[in-house]
């Protein structure tokens, strides 16, 4: 599990391409290295990856076909940066919201409105059917960052970013047209799906009930 509080940005130093597979190596911030072992989980842009090799501050991760298909990690090139967070431990402060590291889809940045002290960014989700889980003032994970949803329309949503988020994460460098990873809040998804099932069952029962 992760908290959505990005611990740093890591530069991708090399990528080894294989058929439907990729290994990339990143330079992890020094603060994230103590106690790190092979097999540990580290989120990259919100996607949970497993450490496969450690050479000083250079750490290797494998990305399989499904990860490359669903997330924006397949677009990463050497020199690019990713948001990184190590798995949460018991007694860690949960400053964001609990996240699984399982990216559901990506979203395209469609508009950026900048002011002196904050930035409003609008996104269009790749799979519109997921918009039912994105609610005003609800939680969402964007490239591994725990954020609160601002305005929501039928096809788009926005978030408001403070200077600290822009400085500490890759969202400060994102531009219109680029894709970000999206993790829907699992509690919101569970509630919406449960309500839909209950309503569907009631509708079926009402249709089957004999008329008086």
Automatic annotation (TrEMBL):
GO terms for cellular component: cytosol. Pfam families: Lum_binding. InterPro entries: ATP_synth_asu-like_sf, Lumazine-bd, Lumazine-bd_dom, Riboflavin_synthase-like_b-brl. The keyword Cell inner membrane does not apply. Residues 1-97, 98-195 form the Lumazine-binding domain. It catalyses: 2 6,7-dimethyl-8-(1-D-ribityl)lumazine + H(+) = 5-amino-6-(D-ribitylamino)uracil + riboflavin. GO terms for molecular function: riboflavin synthase activity. Keywords: Repeat, Riboflavin biosynthesis, Transferase. Its EC number is 2.5.1.9. Lumazine-binding repeats lie at residues 1-97, 98-195. Pathway: Cofactor biosynthesis; riboflavin biosynthesis; riboflavin from 2-hydroxy-3-oxobutyl phosphate and 5-amino-6-(D-ribitylamino)uracil: step 2/2. GO terms for biological process: riboflavin biosynthetic process. It comes from the Bacteria. NCBIfam families: PRK09289.1, PRK13020.1, ribE. Catalyzes the dismutation of two molecules of 6,7-dimethyl-8-ribityllumazine, resulting in the formation of riboflavin and 5-amino-6-(D-ribitylamino)uracil. This is Riboflavin synthase. It comes from Shimwellia blattae (strain ATCC 29907 / DSM 4481 / JCM 1650 / NBRC 105725 / CDC 9005-74). The gene is ribC.
